[in-house]
Amino acid sequence: MQIKTISIFISSVFGAVLIAFLVFAYLSPLPKINPTPTFKSLTIKNNQPISWAKSGNQAIGIVDYGVSNHTGSLIPSPVASTIKTLLALSVLSKKPLSINQQGPNIVINQADLASYNSDLALGESVAKVQPGEIITEYQALQALLIASANNFAQILANWAFGSTSNYITYANQYAKSLGMNETTVSDDSGYSTATTSNAVDLVILGQKAIANPVIASIVKQYTAVIPVAGMISNYNTNVDPYINKQINGIKTGNTTEGGGNYIYSGGYMGYEIVGSIVDAPNLSTSLAEGPKILAEYEKLIKIKTLVPINQEVGYYTLPWGNRIAVYSPSNIYLPIEPNVRYSIKLDLNPFKISQKTTGVAGYLNVIANQKNHQYPILFRNTYKSPSFWWRIKYNFQRLSNLI
Fold this sequence. Notes:
- The chain has 403 residues and is α+β, with helices and mostly antiparallel strands.
- It has helices at 2-27, 84-94, 110-121, 137-145, 150-161, 164-178, 199-210, 213-219, 283-300, 388-402; strands at residues 36-37, 42-45, 57-62, 69-71, 77-78, 105-107, 134-136, 196-197, 223-226, 230-233, 249-255, 259-268, 271-280, 302-307, 312-317, 323-327, 332-336, 341-348, 360-368, 371-379.
- Helix 2 (84-94) packs parallel to helix 7 (199-210) and helix 4 crosses helix 8 (213-219).
């Protein structure tokens, strides 16, 4: 009787241990599966000389890829009305507009008329106003960016920030946040020679501005009609549709002390290129050289297909026999600019058995000019979960290795 009791006890213990092991084996986490990339990392550099203008400090680069090339001095100098682009961005950060919106009304007062008369007497660029005039935010931005009206720089700074002083504080902080580390804003219009920048910073500014749909819609206009002032014309004569120089923006600036300054832009193969010329002998020189630099730069850009749409770039081999492929859901192109080093690497995450295969497996990373462009890589197919017996076998082996 005692022997039978002991036998039953041992069987019960063994059964309990077996059940515990089976539960442990089934519920224990399975290993993460490391990927096998088929896309190989690579580095690309396109070494080619650039045809710069003979005078002035210059810079250029594709929007979203930063400033890729520059020449000449980077010492800040007066940049005149090109800095009005920063005012436009600042106003829109406080008073956002969507494309085709006119925005809120601005009522012109007696102080605005006095400012107009003062600027006019000094020979500054202005747009006529009168007390009681009602002008929309969009029309005021047209006066600022097309007519380059200094009086509208003050109107917009006061309207959006309460005072020019408040705007200057904001603009300097905003400029630094954009990476314009060599820019100092001392007034609202750029008339002050203490408002300085350099060619690299102006490309950063131009790239940010041309990516704004409202600003882009304005700076490509050769003429516009606004209240009181009537027809206004763009100082950036390269946007004249009859000239057809492929320039679609963005801002000129000209002073005796600062020479001819110019931020220009143009589209190429679905990309937007922004360049700048600072401290040229005069504005006419900058306007003549900008389209030439742009046209020559476009010839040096090589568009490379890194990964075609739906192409497999790697896979996961699951230890119980399944294979999960990963692919690019879109064509991944790279505009290779001259003298830029591109590092391209596929980073796939380890695969967890419990996760779904409907999300992102990782990213194709393209690093250039200290900017990282990420392109999502997706799972192509689902997988079958491991069987109960495979889990038992796997965890038994794992337990045996521990013993």
